[in-house]
Design a protein that fits this description.
The complex is a heterodimer.
Chain A: H1 3-10, H2 17-29, H3 52-55, H4 71-80, E1 84-88, E2 91-96, E3 101-107, E4 110-116, E5 123-132, E6 137-144, E7 151-160, E8 165-172, E9 177-186, E10 192-199, E11 206-215, E12 221-230, E13 235-244, E14 251-261, E15 267-276, E16 281-290, H5 294-301, H6 307-323, H7 329-341
Parallel strand pairs in A: 1-3, 2-4, 3-5, 4-6, 5-7, 6-8, 7-9, 8-10, 9-11, 10-12, 11-13, 12-14, 13-15, 14-16
Helix pairs in contact in A: 2-4, 5-6, 6-7
Chain B: E1 2-11, E2 14-24, E3 29-33, H1 40-48, E4 54-62, E5 65-66, H2 72-78, E6 80-83, E7 90-94, H3 95-109, H4 117-130, E8 141-142, H5 148-162, E9 166-170, H6 178-191, E10 197-202, E11 215-220, E12 223-228, H7 230-239, H8 242-246
Helix pairs in contact in B: 2-3, 5-6
Classes of the chains: A alpha/beta, B alpha/beta.
Chain lengths: ~350, ~250
């Protein structure tokens, strides 16, 4: 395993010492395996299917860390050629998640950030640490419409300072193997996050969303809502964990995940989790799994809509709850169109 | 217009309809009354095309066509409208989107072009007013959070817009207060015409005070056991259904 990554890096015109260190760290740590709880349903051995040329490391070199935390961290650093720093203090910014990138993004003021899977690569790793200054407001969307061969790993860490607010929406409508991790740290009082996501794998696609929200300070709020529409023989995984630390009194937190299974062979593993270390909190969570409401299908058919149209309308209604949260109009329309064109007929 | 002959239907291994015979001509209003569990709702849903039922015997023709061959949506496009006893709530699908989709489905079936957005809006607004409904409800999900009375009014609104040939009203009066009942009855009455037929399915005589039927039938045990004029409804109201068992 990972011989293809080594080959891809060694095929670069020049392999800097720093990148060599990152590669060595990767080989030493290895990648997480199925025995690790967070990787139970997502087997990274699928990376072995990639050829050295499909791994396509970045040709640039940026800043490198002095030490590595994990194999995945080292993999992304080696492939992205280190960390780029971006300062966002207003307006809208778009970044491509179809390329290996490693970013440190500093946000102040009111910022709209769109992470879009643009480059039609076979494989990409996109890791970002986003720091929100006090009172900053970030509207973040991440959309992924990759083809049915693509492998994607994204990892976002969001650190929110006092009274900072994040509204994030993600949509995964493609990809053979997709794993998204989101870590949110509500570090100071009054910070809040709204994290919403839609996943709609079909065919033999695999989408895994893992989220961790840490309430580390008093008076922070988190609201999380993910919805899945799973068809064909696709598999979806959702794990949303909320940690309320001892100091985080007056925490207000809610996690919801709802799934619609459109075929007998579709699979969903969804689990919201809570870990609370103080008594002065308001926390709720819940998960649902189901099929389309056949009474509603009949009702629509009794008004003249074809069975296909009735099902499409009901499925779209289920997903729209998340799609409507995308603030960028163009992006929202693209996601709606992509969602509809992928519905089973 | 509608001809039901010896109709037998079964659900979950249980025979519900056991030989219904009924002919409805254009312009006529028929009321079917009967105790709970007599098969009233089954008859309504069998006519509308619900697939949970198995037709074991008999036939139904509508405008000369074999109705039982057609899926629910084609029946709707051909002019059958069922006002549901319990209209479903569909969060996320707005009434506006739903009404437009329904109207255009019918127009497509009839080979007509899609309705112009401006015409549609004006038309819908007019009918919403007629049903004394709040125009804001068009932006809400279909029946989402509606009271029982609002749901029934929404059914009649759809009926006014879809202009069916055969209106089947399944317990439309249940759960309505007297004001809502009058509005609903008025909606039904404005639709009465020599080209249209109506089938009122009801437990009580109440609705028939406002929508006068030409014929009244009593359904019990899956069969029509008695037919007559409007006076039969009054007799049932006075004597109850048990009187018929004894007779």
């Amino acid at each position: 395993m990972l011989s293809n990554v080594t080959a891809a890096l060694e095929a670069l015109p020049s392999l800097s010492t720093q990148r060599r260190i990152a590669l060595d760290a990767l080989l030493q740590f290895g990648l997480p395996g199925k025995k690790e709880e967070d990787w139970r349903y997502s087997n990274l051995s699928i990376l072995d299917e990639l050829t050295a040329s499909e791994i396509a490391p970045s040709l640039q070199n940026y800043e490198f860390p002095s030490a590595y935390d994990s194999g995945l961290d080292a993999l992304n650093t080696a492939l992205a050629g280190g960390t780029q720093t971006k300062i966002l203090d207003g307006g809208s910014t778009e970044l491509d998640t179809g390329l290996h990138q490693r970013l440190h993004i500093k946000v102040s003021g009111e910022v709209e950030l769109s992470l879009i899977d643009k480059t039609p690569s076979r494989f990409s790793t996109f890791f970002a640490v986003i720091e929100l200054a006090p009172n900053a407001r970030l509207r973040l969307s991440r959309t992924q419409h990759a083809d049915s061969q693509a492998q994607r790993i994204t990892h976002l860490t969001i650190n929110a300072a006092r009274d900072a607010r994040v509204e994030a929406v993600t949509a995964d409508l493609g990809g053979r193997f997709v794993r998204n991790d989101v870590f949110v740290n509500l570090n100071e009082a009054g910070a809040s996050v709204q994290l919403c996501g839609l996943y709609a794998p079909t065919g033999s696609e695999h989408v895994d969303n893992h989220t961790w929200i840490h309430h580390r300070a008093p008076h922070c709020q988190s609201y999380e809502s993910y919805r899945g529409v799973v068809s064909g023989s696709a598999r979806a995984v959702f794990n949303g964990k909320v940690f309320v630390h001892e100091k985080a009194i007056k925490t207000d937190s809610e996690t919801r995940v709802a799934n619609l299974l459109l075929s007998k062979t579709a699979e969903v593993y969804a689990k919201p989790e809570l870990e609370i270390y103080n008594d002065d909190v308001k926390c709720a969570h819940g998960a649902t799994f189901g099929q389309l409401d056949e009474d509603a299908v009949y009702y629509l058919r009794a008004r003249g809509l074809s069975a296909d149209m009735a099902r499409a309308l009901l499925t779209q209604a289920f997903a729209q709850e998340i799609i409507d949260r995308i603030s960028n109009d163009d992006l929202r329309e693209q996601v709606t169109a992509r969602f509809l064109e992928r519905l089973p007929r | 217009m509608l001809e039901i002959k010896n109709l037998h239907a079964r659900v979950e291994g249980k025979d519900i309809l056991k030989g219904i015979n009924l002919t409805i001509k254009a312009g006529e209003v028929h009321a079917i009354m009967g105790p709970n569990g007599s098969g009233k709702s089954t008859l309504s849903n069998v006519l509308a095309g619900r697939e949970d039922y198995t037709i074991t015997e008999g036939s139904v023709t509508f405008g000369g066509k074999d109705l039982l061959e057609l899926p629910a949506e084609i029946r709707a496009c051909e002019g059958i409208f069922l006002s549901f006893q319990y209209p479903v709530e569909i969060p996320g699908v707005s009434n506006m989107v739903f009404l437009k989709a329904a109207i255009n489905a019918k127009r497509k079936h009839l080979g007509q072009p899609e309705i112009e957005a401006v015409d549609f809006l004006a038309w819908v607004k007019d009918r919403v007013k007629k049903m004394s409904m709040d125009i804001k409800m068009l932006q809400r999900g279909v029946n989402e959070g509606f009271s029982g009375g609002e749901k029934k009014r929404n059914e009649i609104l759809q009926m006014l817009l879809l202009e069916p040939k055969l209106m089947i009203l399944d317990e439309t009066d249940s759960g309505l207060d007297i004001d809502a009942l009058k509005i609903v009855a008025e909606g039904i009455n404005t639709m009465r015409s020599p080209e249209r037929a109506t089938l009122l399915v009801t437990h009580y005589q109440r609705l028939l005070d406002y929508v006068k039927p030409d014929f009244v039938h009593v359904l019990a045990g899956g069969r029509i056991i008695k037919s007559g004029g409007p006076e039969l409804a009054l007799e049932l109201e006075a004597k109850g259904y048990n009187w018929l068992d004894a007779a």
